[in-house]
Amino acid sequence: MNEEPSKEKVPITKLPANVKLLGAASLLNDIASEMIFPLMPAFLLGLPGGSKTYLGLIEGVADSVASLLKLWSGAWSDRAGWRKGFVVFGYGVTALVRPLSGLAAFPWQLFAVRISDRIGKGVRTSPRDALIADSTSPSIRGRAFGFHQAMDHLGAAVGPILATLFLLRWPSQLRPLFLLTIIPGLAVVALLVLGLREVPAKKNPSPDQLKLTLKPFGWHFRLYLAALFIFTLGNSSDAFLLLRAQEQGVSQAYLPLLWCAFHVVKSGSNLLAGKASDWLGPRPVLIAGWALFAAIYLAFALAANAGQVWLIFLAYGFVYSLTEPASKAMVTRLEPGERKGLAFGWFNFAIGIAALPASVVCGWLYENFGPLAAFGYGATLAAIAALLLLLIPSSERQGQKK
Length: 402
Prior knowledge:
Elements: H1 17-33, H2 40-45, H3 52-80, H4 84-97, H5 107-134, H6 141-169, H7 174-179, H8 182-195, H9 219-234, H10 239-247, H11 255-280, H12 282-302, H13 306-334, H14 340-369, H15 371-389
Helix pairs in contact: 1-6, 1-8, 3-5, 3-14, 4-5, 4-8, 5-14, 6-11, 6-13, 9-14, 9-15, 11-12, 11-13, 12-13, 12-15, 14-15
């Protein structure tokens, strides 16, 4: 059965309670994480032995570990028939280990904290995305994922504002700031324990459906994973963009504000992009997003001053809004409902195994050949990935392998 993009207008207020609650949890979680992230590159470079290459290693390994776990947790949540426990545990791990960044004295300690943080993310993400899909009708899934990402980015805008206010009052006191992130982190766990509701599985999956294999999935889904892998190979950590901003004259005191403005754009435009994904279908929206990503990365490489960096960062926020809801909506469009956890697991796995080389290569190219080589590499792979998506039908739902 085909699932055509729905043209019915469903207001945000009619999104299910689980979607709204998970959005609130992401808001609080990102308030905490984005109090740290825009300051982390400079913090790392200030530690003995810190470098751009080490930054790429930390970000790449952390994202890869997370995505390996996303594959396992997605499939295991299908097997268990429940998802809430994975979500609560994952957010709980992150809430407890993230503040320990404030105690790091050497890069390897920051590395350990970041890996532990990403373990929590790996456990929770695929079950959370599957729970959003379980809780939502197919006609508004793009909107649901758009709402969730919008709340996520709203928190990512608030976090840097709080960090800036703190640093204006207590300049250079990064360690106490990092330790304070435990407050919103614990609030997330309390919210989920008290408010999140399980959506019972419609039927018990067969053992074959629970194997960590691509065998049951159609070639369109596999092609999508290949395109996603190629795109991610060029999509290095945004920490490099923050370094580029600092190189072009954005002072450390204003980096959190730049990061805030970036996430304000992401938050507002995600709602619109999610609706566009429901209206047009996710494929054309994602193609447009990846093509614009290529152009924006080249612009980062060629930026000549702080003013240009500000404008490019704001445009980059809009690119994110095109890619995030549509990329997840593509998963639910291509694969049947009983495998949503496993499908999201493979989606995140494809991203994760490419994340390590992406950030390591970018860091190496940046340090040895400069920004044009680093960001030009990412732009080229994004353009190739966008072309691959043209081979996937725009509206056909390709589920079980024929």
